Predict the 3D structure of the following.
Amino acid sequence: MSADAPVVAVLTAGGDCPGLNAVIRAVVRRCIDVHDAEVVGVENGWNGLMENEVRSLRRDDVRGILQQGGTILGTSRRDPYEQGDGYASVQRTVERNGIDTVIVIGGDGTLRTALRLADEGLQVVAVPKTIDNDIAGTDMTFGFDTAVEIATQAIDRITTTAEAHERLMVVEVMGRTRGWIATWAGIAAGADAILIPEFPYDLDEIAEVVRTRVRRGRTFSIVVVAEGVDPPPGHDRERRLDALGFERVGGVAYQIAPELEERTGVETRVTVLGYVQRGGVPTAFDRVLATRLGVKAADLAIEGTSGVMTALRGPEIVAVPLEEACSEIKKVPPRLYEVAKTFFG
Amino acid sequence: MSADAPVVAVLTAGGDCPGLNAVIRAVVRRCIDVHDAEVVGVENGWNGLMENEVRSLRRDDVRGILQQGGTILGTSRRDPYEQGDGYASVQRTVERNGIDTVIVIGGDGTLRTALRLADEGLQVVAVPKTIDNDIAGTDMTFGFDTAVEIATQAIDRITTTAEAHERLMVVEVMGRTRGWIATWAGIAAGADAILIPEFPYDLDEIAEVVRTRVRRGRTFSIVVVAEGVDPPPGHDRERRLDALGFERVGGVAYQIAPELEERTGVETRVTVLGYVQRGGVPTAFDRVLATRLGVKAADLAIEGTSGVMTALRGPEIVAVPLEEACSEIKKVPPRLYEVAKTFFG
Amino acid sequence: MSADAPVVAVLTAGGDCPGLNAVIRAVVRRCIDVHDAEVVGVENGWNGLMENEVRSLRRDDVRGILQQGGTILGTSRRDPYEQGDGYASVQRTVERNGIDTVIVIGGDGTLRTALRLADEGLQVVAVPKTIDNDIAGTDMTFGFDTAVEIATQAIDRITTTAEAHERLMVVEVMGRTRGWIATWAGIAAGADAILIPEFPYDLDEIAEVVRTRVRRGRTFSIVVVAEGVDPPPGHDRERRLDALGFERVGGVAYQIAPELEERTGVETRVTVLGYVQRGGVPTAFDRVLATRLGVKAADLAIEGTSGVMTALRGPEIVAVPLEEACSEIKKVPPRLYEVAKTFFG
Amino acid sequence: MSADAPVVAVLTAGGDCPGLNAVIRAVVRRCIDVHDAEVVGVENGWNGLMENEVRSLRRDDVRGILQQGGTILGTSRRDPYEQGDGYASVQRTVERNGIDTVIVIGGDGTLRTALRLADEGLQVVAVPKTIDNDIAGTDMTFGFDTAVEIATQAIDRITTTAEAHERLMVVEVMGRTRGWIATWAGIAAGADAILIPEFPYDLDEIAEVVRTRVRRGRTFSIVVVAEGVDPPPGHDRERRLDALGFERVGGVAYQIAPELEERTGVETRVTVLGYVQRGGVPTAFDRVLATRLGVKAADLAIEGTSGVMTALRGPEIVAVPLEEACSEIKKVPPRLYEVAKTFFG
């Protein structure tokens, strides 16, 4: 590597997501093997960029991580605007390490931060990351396919128990503001109803679906619920902190289930899938997507593009302005939800 | 089939368990193809035997069910002693259908009922069934391997998230009175602590394990908890019925987690695996075990043995008196738990 | 259903592909539940349309098939142009059953037949099907994701053995004329070289990649080969028919492997994945894609569109003229292959 | 660790097998954490013991390897009796490193070598390892469950294709001298015939099974073949070395398939599963078994026992004299094979 080789930094911010390591590996291999550049790994997300927690990343450092969940760089929820004063908070690390471009792998909050830093003058390329698939400007995000596959396999299993016991099973999947996982996993597992934040729901209608099934001899039903749907009328959004300040994940299914049980007379049970959806070995699809996004980010970094995010558009990986990605939290479109509704009941 | 062919009835009682259909198929195929006998399927567990809900089972009825979760016969929790007057409640169905022997597939409650019916004169052969592996007299029960595999894969996934976020993850698995699933899945997934009902636990000790890990740079930990462990001091056994009488599954992890978070200072999260552990496609191991148990049950039924359960003993399938199976709820032995403890921390 | 309800026929032609049943189910549910139409299932592909092998498909007929591999309608390789005289061969079945539109699910050969029939006046809508992903006009075909996932998991497993034994493993995957599965699975599993029909290969170059790895202490390598690549110089395209006229699948890996072993001195082994890639339970991705394509096909059939294929374009399902789909066998583009090459060695 | 802490060496010999790393980890953790002993890792099997290729193994060296296929120590097929002069070849390494006991993880050849070394005076404890499950003295070997699970899932997939195309599928699984994998996977996947080396087979009988199925409307069949069965009459044991001396794995299925096709008239295809069966992530069952065997081996080493193998007997792990393990290659017993035959056809 020549003394004036370009220096690319890479960091992962926000929650765990299958494919993070695949992106890191792709950035490192592309920069080193194709562009003869140097890669600096920033630890613990933005925090490392604020605190100069960095280390050189070589080929051997990313060996064998393609299939691994988690991130070898660690992550944090610290942010240079919330816990610092923006560009100034990270400038010293950037300069001290001669970093030409920072590749940030993160969700919508991270992308907004990246956009602000780009506006302040940091050379930055983003790779969108969320199991929730709700980032605008890209057809899909990596991690989503894995989350859907896990949720689908879980619902497949729960379905046989529902049938054996003639029960209504309410399965809560991740999705605080959007219902992508619920919609896809619900379609894939043949759910009898899918409740997502994008569309209001009516418990009486769902109960009628369940009762119609019973009349047809289908004495069990599966209802998939995104964690972010509104609680039923008369229920508060569940307080999830207990006396010790401990946070529960999910819970709206526990509010919906008894309402459905009362309306249908069908014995009802709840499963909250929780953290199994966001970790572990990525599917092949997510490994390929993460790898392609990482390669593109490296190429953009080397050519000096800034303020963009890599994105999947049809069969291509393209660069999309961060403004576009930050313009909205991508909703499940009515067309897709209407496809899912075909199979309700 | 000759007019005086022996008639074997088969029923499934209690909760769903991967491999139920594999047993049913094995009974049917063995009776018909090898013993030239007739098989009657009893629907909805003991209920069908009390209410004469029966149908003939032929080869074609069990086609393609080997891999399927659930039970084609349905199940129920109704019992001829609790909701009826024992043998008298089922005698009419037995006589009306010319049933020579009833093969019952069920858990410990079912086995006790089978024993009482056998004592009253019913010809009965049992096949032990529980994902909890806590039936005495057999090395393993079918369904357990599948439950352990599912739980292990889930913990594998959760571990990467724990590591990425430097968290303590408390994972609650099934096991109301025994900790077999917790112990096996905990060993298989490399848990840092495993809490089971057979042995008391000390939160301070567990917290110390977690803190020691942190000192060694292992800033995350996995604690596996069987649902049936006692709540921590100062906590009641959680009331799991809400205002509408709705029952929650599990929950002790939500009592243990904040206590550990407080003692360790490590951010803590809970996952309750719930119903995914007890349904769906059985592992190959469970398919083989269920098939062998079903074949043996058919052989015993045809030869006129009664009051026994089929069991795995080393590499063999044998008949065990139901008394032995009903003598205790099999505990995780100290030897095995001590093996697991080797890897705590 | 009214007497003059539209009648939609559906058939599956060509090889098995995970998701076929999901498409059939989607067509049936969409036609019946949304469009109040009638569905006729045609058995054994075009053969059934030529021989009037049809049966009514109702809701109950497609119950539980979403997850199943194979096709409940059967398939065949018979073709109305090769074994019949085109439209005339199928017209009687169409008229006798009052079929308004035929939905054909099939690969490129089937699409070409559908196009010719459409030109002769048959109302036809196609759903593209191939694990090979080589149909033009759509971003992806259903079945491909499952094939890639299976191949990737297999290569993951083979890699640990390669490493333990310091071996070169040549893994042959499906793809007679195109290298989509090889490219995706190779990227996903971190292959050291990927050989596909779209690009020539040089055994000396690949051997040099392997030797460079050995020099770096990586004493094992994985080479993924699409079955359709040319054999090495000096080898004939292997005669795959034996004395009894029996056809072997694959085999070029057995010609490449000894050449690489000789050039590298690294012990080399071959695995031909074969039929495991094209059957069984579809991934969640393929279930969703197949369902969406089937819903769209039903909608197009009902609205009277003909001569089109349903296709994935970015996040949308659209109708594409069959001419476009039949214009070429879609190649792996240089851009994607160049991404894969980043990780060679 | 005190200066006079006991020193335990560990090595892995022979082929890859899921669970090797789990045993190594268990030995290291048990020795260090429970027995305050030191562990020396020997590289590349017996070779490392002959050539003094050793390194200290600490807690951190075995971190995260429980789930990994392969062996961190490498392996080889070199043997101190075949390539050396027995005990004398390894004595220098043993003495130079102050090794008190050597734990060897290997198959039947390795066990025989271990027995001879023990007879010459080496302190040795063995852990039996083979995916083939054919080691006497233990109910099961680790790696077998994983191999059976992989083979079963593969046959599940192949079955849907067989059914869709009305084909006979011949699936060849590993097992050079014994048919354990074939028998278990065949039972688990519902095979219509299973051919293993322990029992002669008659192609006419198998063909009759297939034809009977066709008459019953089951126009497809699955035949599972262990690689080690004799070729059909008139076929030589296939020459598996080609012009360059390259060895093929398996192949007898290619000799059996055309014979069955000719006798049945059913289109027949072959899949040779090959190396996917012996690598990769172990099942939970194998992780638990491997861990328990490793813990027991460490305990035996520390207490000074020699010339034994750890073994599964019913629910217990016990020590078994190496003589017993080496007395025979364990056959599939007639009882088990007869269970499998219940489901033929």
Observations:
- The mean pLDDT of chain D is 95.
